[in-house]
Amino acid sequence: MTQKENEFNNLINNNSQLLTSAADILQQIFENFSGLLEDISKLSFKNDVEQSSNIFEINQCKRKVSEYIHQANQSLHIEIPNLLEVVKESKQKIIEYEEIIKNYENDIEKLTERLKNAENKCTETKNLEQQNTYSAAMGSTLAKMLWKTSKSQGAIQTYIDTGTMHPFLNLSHNTIAGFQDTYHENLPAPETFEVSYLLSLLGIYTNIVAQSIGRDYVLTHEIGVLGVKRILSYFGEMKMPSAHLLKRLILMFLYNLSITNEGAKLIAESETGIDNILKCLSVEHGDEIQGIALSLLVSLVNELDSHNFQKQLFMKLSQNDNFQKLMICKDVSLVTLCRKLLEKLENNTCSLFDF
After folding, report:
1. Please, what sign has the CA dihedral across residues 79, 85, 88, 94?
2. pLDDT tens digits along 225-273
3. pTM for this one?
4. Predicted confidence (pLDDT) per residue in 50-73, tens digit
């Protein structure tokens, strides 16, 4: 119960008590007058003696009436001002409560309107969410279709000739950036539309740089270079096992890019590019990703004759526990790739390191 309701209840209770008191006083006056009238009715005027006796009784009655009136006046002089004050206060309170009720009614009207608007917005939001789901599903499906068609020999040339390559690279860069800013390392489930869409974009990217004309376009346009850097940046944040398909595809993309000097240089000069590739040598990535990562490192060494780069890579491998484990693992293909990489580095740096 609110404070205003408590005040109103108290007011009603107090008024009730005062009115009850006033009623009692008036009832007493009525009873006294009734007694007086009854006494008067008993008077007789048959003879002088009796008349004298009646006069005495009348005088007695007058005194009683005077006393009753005096008592009634005293009581009423006390109670009536109180009652009038209470009535005045009650009147003011009623006005105040009427104003409060009016305000509550206005508030209820406003809240009802807001509720109605909120319900409309909820309906709109549900429709938008449904539309977003349809759009995501459609985007994922179309991206898959484009991924498949991008494998054809003339597809990349068509993208360039029709002016759709640049918008695609721009859209892909913004999509990957938004995906990274939204999810970071906490990737959605692989079967979601979001991951499916991203996977398709990376697949198209991979097919683009698989052809020389596509690699040249990516490496000679700012938006293409920004896209590569963004992929290298996000690549390191992705956690296994949810990122298995994405990491596998990114390594293939980087491998296709690394078979040219400019592409290899872009990867090698990336702030965390080599370190992120070396992370893929851990056992949690599985032998397929480990094999692609080793092949990528071999390709980089083949393309880059920088003594400084090869020396740094050599030192990183010498301190990498995962690489040492792969050197003695049971998978012959992985051991072969490790030895091939080590051999090239040893020959190019003219130094030996005991693994």
Report:
1. negative
2. 999 999 998 888 888 888 889 999 999 999 999 999 999 999 998 878 8
3. 0.64
4. 555 667 766 776 677 667 666 666
What would the mean pLDDT of 272-283 be, rounded to a whole number? 90
